[in-house]
Amino acid sequence: MSHVLARIGRRRALQGAAAGFVVFGLLMWWLLPLGENPPSGTISFSTGTPAGVYQQYGVRLRNAFHKDMPDLKVDLRTSDGSQENVRRVATGGADFTIAAADAVDTYELGHRTGHDRLRGVARLYDDYVQLIVPRDSTVRSVADLRGKRVAIGPARSGVRLIADRVLKAAGLDPQKDVKPSADGIDTGPDQLKRNEIDAFFWSGGLPTQGLENLAEHFTFRFVPIPADLVAKLHEQGGATRYYRATNMPESAYPSIQNGVAVPTIAVSNILITRADVSPRLTEWVTRTVIKSRDDIGWHVHSAQLVDLRTAIYTDPLALHEGAKRYYRSVKP
């Protein structure tokens, strides 16, 4: 009897080991293409302002690329934001970047240089429009900005694009009815503290480090952007179709919001590249972006929202061939 039990035990152990190898093999198949050496060389990645989420995400993503593709050098390039990022990739100044969908569509609708070469890699997370004023400000709506000193973002930023449109939707001329400045998240918070501006626009993932830092030393609040204003925004046509009414959750900046959500606008971010970038490289990049979500999400909250089920929706751009290969490989 003991010999029989021993044989059964060995058989079960072998079966367990075999099952373990199968699971391990499937895991490795998902993480890395078996039998394939990682891409090497150098790529450039355009991010954003140092205090913004694009830069934070880009730094963490570069670390993830290094783990999966140790011989691939990633050159990060800061920028003013989405509009500059799109132009860089379209004209060959960068290989990959993150940009808001409205900035991508605006570039395409304008038939600007290289617009037809742009391709999508993955839908990432949403940007939220955040209009910031001092706690004791008399500004309660966008229309109340008339005559105020307002930072509307650098000329080539996504913030500028959306701030101009929001002001117009509220019946304000961005150049005549407010006193505009080209400051963004890097300089706007300090200027608000020094009373050099009355308000500033920011569009980014939640939370943004620049605003978290401001909350530690200065009491501010968010001006709501209600759904009826978003409806007027849509009347402008074109890329405004990518704006949707939503609420900034109360957990974004707890010490500022005090448990209250803020009506505002959201727009999706897309990881983009060009049609001529290697499909093999793009497939590896796509894989790393998806599988590094949780690790990056510990440090950059917005990254937690990257989802395989929605990543393929890179409208207004068609998917790059390399990204298609990856999504097909993991399709159930």
List keywords for this structure.
disordered N terminus, 10 strands, 332 residues, ten-stranded mixed β-sheet, 13 helices
Can you give me a brief rundown of this structure?
With 332 residues, the chain is of the alpha/beta class. Helices cover 41% and strands 20% of the residues. Strands 1, 2, 3, 4, 5, 6, 7, 8, 9 and 10 form a 10-stranded mixed beta sheet that branches.
Q: Pairing-aware structural class of the strands and helices?
A: alpha/beta
Biggest sheet layout: 10 strands, mixed
Task: Compute the number of strand runs.
Answer: 10
Note the overall shape.
globular
How much strand?
A: 15-25%
Task: Please give the count of helices.
Answer: 13
Strand and helix order: HEHEHEHEEHEHEHEHEHEHHHH
Structural Rg: 23 Å
Bin the helical content: 40-55%
Seen as an oligomer or otherwise, the chain set is single chain
The chain-level mean pLDDT equals 91
Spans of at least 5 consecutive residues with low confidence: 1-9, 17-31
- Give the termini separation: 45 Å
